[in-house]
Amino acid sequence: MAQRTTTRPGADPRRRALRHRRLLGAAFALPALLLLGALVAYPVVFSVVRSLFDASGDRFVGADNYVEMARDPATLTALRNSAVWVVVAPVLLTGLGLLLAVLTERVRWATAFKLVLFLPMAVSFLAAGIVFRLAYEQDPDRGVLNAVVVGVHDVFVEPAPYPTARAREGLGLTGSQADGYTSGELRPGAVAVLPFVGVAPGAVPAAAGPARAPDAVPGALTGTVYLDFTPGAGGRPGRVDPAEKGLPGVTVEAVRDGAAVASARTAADGSFRLDGLTEGTYRLRVPAAVFAAGYGGVDWLGPALITPAVIGAYLWVWTGFSMVLIGAGLAALPRDVLEAARVDGASERQVFRRITVPLLAPVLTVVFVTLVINVMKVFDLVYVIAPGPVQEEANVLATRMWLVSFGGGNDQGLGSALSVLLLLLVVPAMVLNIRRFRKGGDS
């Protein structure tokens, strides 16, 4: 008698249900996969293929674009700047975020503080770049940073009183603004008139009075330093006229045998008096410090500081992001471990270094790697903040790729090679981040 094969009841329905769920899942995933393929996979493949052709895209050149990229000084500068960004910006942001997250736990207004620091994340990179481009202006009247720097500098170093002044030519003073001006030979008891022009109206102090030539004093040299200019084109050059102003605060030296033996500063009416002079001849000298150009501040947008300046703007935007993420990890730490360490006599520094930081290591790693990926793609801030003459010194790989492809270079073969290089540099960080996320999910 033949044995009859039996099937388990419900086996086929289970397989059909499983197949149905898979088809349903594929149907839901298909739009996302199509979108991912159109926006990510296709551009990557196209860029790799395009990098093997010349600028016009008609002639196959193989690896020539990659060889050219390795020889191009501008590309090497961009690669160096990208390395600086990767090393400096994520380290500073992670450190600042950790420090601020720990500090905000100890203040009552922590929420308001976090909100203020996180607000720059709501500002686009374009707007942030414009703000910092203005803040970094060289002119202290426009750039807020140089206004602060110049203000602090002038507190400790007295600025030159009349940086634009120059002596009236042909009236007894010789020299230049760089070397100072010197009069002819004079004997004690003489009165000297030292006329200057080129003083801006705003540079004459409000306390300046009408110029006055003092009387002669035996055994002393007297005189006046004044602005030899009469409104309305009146007056005579080299002569103190009633409408002309004295120049207060000007240092005048009596020089003999090349050395200054006496000095004085002019009063509000421009007059001065040099006493204690022995018999002989002297020359009056107005030193170059009176005409030295004022301190103009720091050249933030110059070739030497442009990359640190742009990184500073980036820190302003992303510090809040780092602080909030690390703060969330800090809030999840087991408080009993921290309290137990304090009860055992650990100082706050020891608690921070040996307990808080090790427990936050996974969060710090995620923040650091995320920032590394982000700085590799930075474009807006560099392009907006760096002026045209120093754009090449500030370039990173993203801006170099855009300039070569669309910003005047019109060489999309080389630009595609740069994009492939950028992709290869970003992929390892992305893979590391994904692995850490998966590891965190499995635990």
UniProtKB/TrEMBL annotation:
Signal peptide: none annotated. GO terms for cellular component: plasma membrane. The chain crosses the membrane at residues 23-45, 83-103, 115-136, 313-334, 355-376, 413-434. It comes from Streptomyces termitum. Its main location: membrane. This is ABC transporter permease. The keyword Ribosomal protein does not apply. It is found in: Cell membrane. It is a multi-pass membrane protein. Residues 79-433 form the ABC transmembrane type-1 domain.
